[in-house]
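Q: Sequence in, structure out?
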Amino acid sequence: MNLLKAMFNKTFFPEKTFWKMILSFSIPIAMQNMSTAILGIIDVSVISYMGETAVAAVSLANQLFYIVSLITFGITSGASVYLSRNYGERNHEAMRKTFSITLIFSLCINLLVMLFCLFFPYKSLGFFTNDSQTIKDGAMYLIIITPTFLLYSLSSSYVAFFRSVKQPKIPMIATMVSLGIKTALNFILIYGVGFIPAMGVAGAAISTLISKLVETVIFLICIARYEDKEYVFKLSDIKFVKPKAIGDFVHKTYAVILNESLWGFGISAFNAIFGRMGNDVVSAVSIARQLENLGNSFFYGVAIGACVTISCSIGEKKIEEAKELARKYALAGFYVGFGVMMLMLAIDIPYVKFFFSGLEPETQSLTIWLIAIYAFYMPFRALASTLIMGVLRAGGNSNKAMLYDVVPVYAWSLLLGFILGIKLKCSIITVLTVMLFKRFIKSVIALKSVAGGRWINYNDIVD
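A: Exactly. Output:
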């Protein structure tokens, strides 16, 4: 009996040393993402007192930043696998080469999107809604925050660097400082204090820009003080940025970049569906997502930790250790997701009533229902993210990860969301419930692939 119990615990409950490793590495990543999520909640909460139109305008304008942030995340996530392996191999020149290409590539992509949003803000927002006032307010917000695109590419590249050298506390601190600054500026600039006039939506945009600038400066200071200078990017490393090197980088990481880009476009298309269901729906979904993003922070730390830790093990040629870590991280992801589900359900009503009392009662009630739907799918989202973002990418199987992540978005969620929400005029509760079923589909497919042992690309390791 004791033997069976020991076998059961070993199979389904990772040992304490593993959880300690998660706490030491993944918690700072989770805290950084949590800070960003809290920032989103405060943003929407403060703006909500200006009404549903203001919430919809800022939320939809941020969709453009959301798209470019996902493309950037794809670039840096793809790079993280190789940065972590380079660090595991102690190959500092290869690491600087990877970083220099990552930085320049992400800057170029962000510059292009920034210019598009700057010159065509009304057309950009017209994709998401046909409400003229929402487009007008959103365009003003979008024009002001466009410089943050370039700042984000810088900060994201350094986040990938610090995580790859197992220094996740630095991004956490930078983000938390940015959170504090943006929170204070939100209250001052949106509603006005003393001689500072109330700026409304424009004030929210200015506070976003200033806080992102401060965050980037913190990263630059920390990288200048980093001890192992041989790993740090130098201006002379631009010599690595050559057409062939960029081609090799894209060849290795295109699946991750394409994954995040297509996923981002798909999620933005969700908002185009929601935007045509009314401003109350956009507001309710936006508020519910802010709490979901807070929940996501917990298991994103697990997923990113899995990618870095497993990549380092593979870089050190410890393949069996990497396989065992994959199993443990999958279990940890699901358990964390289940805990997040219970937490979201527990704070659902108080969260809406406390932070968003300025909204109409009907919008508040709708938001409470949507949060419950997001919460129900959280264990499956956590498991799928850990397996796809963490295990499969670390194993160099980014192509498979892309298919598992993107195909359900388009073949299931978008198709059924369009039919139910636009054609059949179903309620958002029905539409969202059906659309989010993709998370269950993704988790089952990814779990089957990893459990079958087909997640390590040995050709990629040799290269």
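Residues 277 and 425 are 8 Å apart (CA to CA).
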